[in-house]
Amino acid sequence: MTLHPSTRRFIDSLTSSGPQAGDADVDVARLRAARAERVPIDAPDIALVRDLAVPGPAGEVPVRHYHPAPAGPALPCVVYFHGGGYVVGDLETHDHIARLLAAETGATVVAVDYRLAPEHRFPAAVDDAFAATRWVADNAAELGADPARLAVAGDSAGGGLAAAVALMTRDGGGPEIAFQALVYPVTDLSGYPVAGDTPYGSRVSNGEGYFLTSEGMRWFAEQYLNEPGEGSDFRASPIRAADLAGLPPALVVTADFDPLRDEGEDYARALAAAGVPATTTRVNGGFHGMFGLGALLPVCRQAEEPVVAALRSALGLTRPVG
Predict the structure, then answer these.
(1) What family is this protein classified in (predicted)?
(2) Which domain CATH number covers 54?
(3) What is the pTM of this model?
(4) Whole-angstrom distance, CA of residue 78 vs CA of residue 66
């Protein structure tokens, strides 16, 4: 399969508009500045949007709370972790995704602004993600949320964080997670730089030319991990967990032209082999970074729609509210 010409043009416009991870002369400050300067994406209005700060392992963790019907009964809650290779991204760059999730699922959403590398290396991001998830469960009443219907979701690095949080809550006494929605997740941070014997063929076949590159992933891993051996830790690489049994049901969305495609699909298969209800949806003609861009490129809706449908079904939401 080949990329649709409109998708090819879109990717080319993204990669030509600023520095990219893995470029020879890239630095963190330029990468973050370029990401912050992108034109904001139109997103739905939500009845209540407020910034909060929650206790974390190294100080307060900023979060943003989205509630589509604050005057109504408690709603299911989605704790969302943004992508960006553990290096870029924040509450502003991914505000449109959190709004989309709240508006289209009818759930309340809490987006987590976890600490970024290289200033804060592994396990800072996942420790913040875990602490924020526990805080949401413990403070559900204040958030207008139902703690019995709590999901985690994330894209790319955030998908890896969501998967790790599901493992940590299982092993650490809760809270109970009802569902995990993982969008082209990072499930294995080991194996960089990519060698010919990689178990993930998409790291080679999709290693360059499709926005995220395998060299970019090598660079991200180098920024986040203190040393390569940490890639075997399940908190960095959920697929390397010793036991996947007893985890919440999962949806794993992957994209045709994504170097992370195979590790995401392998993770879904590993979950299913461990007895976890797991569904995989591959977006034909899709690429890494497409989630949340449905307003700009129609194919991107094919990543958004299954996530919305799965969350609504798992959390018992028959229709959006508000």
Answers:
(1) Belongs to the 'GDXG' lipolytic enzyme family.
(2) 3.40.50.1820
(3) 0.96
(4) 10
